[in-house]
Amino acid sequence: MDNHFIKQQKILIVDDEPGNIRILAEALTGSYKLTGATSGQEAIECITSESPPDLILLDIIMPDMDGYKVLEILRANKNTRDIPVIFITAMDKDADEVRGFEMGAADYIVKPFNPVIIDARVRTLMERKRMEEKLRESEKRYRGVVEDQTELICRFRAGGTLTFVNDAYCRCFGKTPEDLIGQKFLTFMSEEDRKDMEEHLDTLTPGNPVTTTEHQVVNAHGEIRWHQWTGRAIFGTRDRLIEFQSVGRDTTDRRRTEESLKEAIQEKEASQAKLEAVFRSIPEGIVTVDAQGRIIQVNEPLEDICPMSRQIIQGEPLDRLSGWCSGQCLKVLNQLLEKGQTVSEHNVECADNNQSEKRLSLTSSPLLDHQGSVIGAMLVIRDITRLVELEIKLQERGSFKNIIGKSEPMQRLYTLLEQFSKTDTTVLITGETGTGKERVMEAIHYSSHRSEKPLVLVNCAMLAENLIESELFGHVKGAFTGADRDKVGRFQTAQGGTIFLDEIGELAPHLQAKLLRVLEYKEFERVGESEPRKADVRVIAATNVDLAKRVQQKQFREDFYYRLKVFSVQLPPLRERVGDIPLLVKHFMDTGAKIAGKQFTGISDKVLNIFMHYPWPGNVRELKNAVEYASVLCPGGTISVSHLPSELRDLRQNVPCQNQTPSGNSEKKAIVDALNRTKWNKTKAAKLLDISRGTFYNRLHKYEIDV
Questions:
Q1: Which single residue of 47, 164, 639, 697 has CA 20 to 30 Å from 581?
Q2: Same domain membership, residue 585 and residue 507
Q3: 10-61: pLDDT as tens digits
Q4: Rounded-to-integer distance, Cα 625 and Cα 647, Å
Q5: Backbone angles phi, psi at 539, to 5 degrees
């Protein structure tokens, strides 16, 4: 390609947030010269400099001068009025977009930025501008050739001897007429071109006396130039050839222009191919239509999102599919074409006659020509069904690493456990007996990067006080009476993994001091040994006593207490999450069925009524034992009251019957829990509680719950 056309295109990015300038700059993959400005005034100074940019990315909202004012100044200056401008906005921009286009904006980019779309739009505008510049330059050069060129005229005999030349011919070859007359016409051609010319001349006849050829010649400056020659054979009487007359025109610039245009077209086609490749590779479905709503193009991913896309035919109106589905995509496109209103990330539910319901996100934007006029619309369709399902599952997940429960306290617990598992920080688990402290510990360990390493359990209350130091840290032979060999302690066994110190509140004060050293300095010493050993161990402790109260009573070291509770987890008792009881019962019943080899269909309403009102002092462990007990006694089918342990059977007369309303606090808590789990959707919450909407609204009024 002619080097005249090769130059680096310049882009000015204007945004009062430097971070946005960086993001936009990183999104652009072309070889551009990028300049940034953080205010409207600075942008004006950059643009009106000696070398203005080829494209401007312009933020609308800026403190000193908004983007509209900057664009107004540019359009008022003849030197800057033709610079394409892409507005950057984070607003709901229907009216503002119309205003921007009326002022001459070329496009819009909506925050948050999509790097692929930004790059594609900028590339398209820059390619268009470069092509226009090339065409203008080519046209200018070609016009110069046409306006200034003087044709070369000569005459020569059949053997090629020149008999006449004009001044233009002489100037071209740097000769005088005297130098040329008598010379061969073919002298200035290459051997190959001479043969070609001779063959053309031999074909001329009185019935076909004209021929046109194009070949290269060497001019007076030693330059190789292209000439187009139109030769005419002049015949006399009896069709006798007298001589030839030839008119030559210098076509070098034209040929170079054609070559440049050819290369430019090839580049444009390559750019178009790249754009189409991007168009095909984007995972979202894309539909483009012209201003009349006729299909221009759709991409392949659309078929996976919308089965009706197989019915789309290029050139036909999109509304022909309106009878196949709800037509929400069509409404969005028509809204843009008819009213100029765009949408961004508009979520809809969609289903055709044969497919399951999907959740889609729709974004529309106008298609613009090089003058900024709307020539159509583009719709981007993203399938967010899976994301919505995952969000619902995340909000209503019934378990986490073998911990069962859907209630709000358990959802908060799951979130904490996910955070704790990503760190190595010490965790203190507190809660009543039977609330599942060991399960929580296992969830933290097996969710962490230490999951493949040892998990060592230590019950501090079960070890003799005179042996616990040796059990924890190990000892060397002869360290004390009876130490007849070296012993590996629990901390050394847990190296690289996790050690669980259950019932930490029962630990003697002097051992608390030693453990504090392990937590502070990550090292320990075996009994009878002065050489410290590294402790690459995560410590998780648990207790069912009030350590803060013990600190006040001087029964537990304060510094050790605060070092333990860097991360603290308080497990709720079962009575504070009664909504989880049916889920827990089903889990324990399924487990019991596998162990006993039986099939259970469920529990009776009376059993559920007892379970829901019993205070469960032993918490989840007590419920588990009760269900396992009933699973052993029940032969199969439905577990009834007669299968329960005696302490629960005896409570049958002291709890409300199944048709009675539970206690106010319990019912209010269940309603609030259901609302939280359904994002305060009253219809879904009523369905979750298995009550009618009327009853649900009465309960809201009764307990003064403000939705």
A1: 697
A2: no
A3: 899 998 888 888 988 888 888 888 989 999 888 888 888 768 888 899 888 8
A4: 12
A5: -105, 125
